[in-house]
Specification:
- The protein is of the alpha+beta class and 144 residues long.
- The chain is built from 4 helices and 4 strands.
- It folds into 2 domains: 49 residues, no CATH class; 70 residues, 2-Layer Sandwich (Beta-lactamase Inhibitory Protein, Chain:B, domain 1).
- Helix 1 packs antiparallel against helix 2 and helix 2 packs across helix 4.
Length: 144
């Protein structure tokens, strides 16, 4: 079980109880207003990221190498979606743990990310093998 599922409600109850003790109903109203504002800010961020991701192809990213350098362990899937601007291509079974997503760029490099309980556990960058350059004695088309 995720500790956040327990800690946030307990912290909310403690804040409301402390506000009641300190200022009565006015304190409860102030704390409740703050908690609702916090929830609305997170909901607004979620909607903004999903709206931006809906306009892009699934599993695509501008640069897989840049994504690889920006990733940090423990960030959530929403944060990674915000960095990529798109939904990842789901490689694992739906609702299975760990969840595995892939983002690919135009050069066919891709980053495969593994999320455990919605948090980034590990990731891997795979780059395609480089194409061999043409040898100096080979003609290169219609060069002047």
């Amino acid at each position: 079980m995720n500790w956040r599922q327990i800690a946030y409600p307990i912290a909310g109850v403690i804040l409301v109880a402390g506000a009641w003790r300190a200022a009565g109903w006015a304190g409860v109203a102030i704390v409740a207003t703050g908690m609702v504002t916090w929830a609305l800010l997170h909901f607004n961020r979620l909607m903004h990221v999903l709206k931006k991701a809906a306009d892009r192809p699934k599993g695509r990213v501008g640069s897989a190498v840049m994504l690889h350098t920006k990733l940090k362990p423990g960030v959530n899937l929403l944060h990674v979606m915000s960095m990529t601007g798109s939904l990842g291509e789901l490689l694992s079974q739906p609702d299975a743990q760990p969840e595995v997503f892939r983002w690919t760029d135009d050069g066919d490099s891709h980053v495969t990310c593994e999320f455990v309980n919605g948090r980034l556990a590990k990731w891997e960058l795979v780059r395609p093998p480089e194409q061999p350059e043409s040898s100096p004695g080979t003609p290169e088309g219609d060069a002047p």
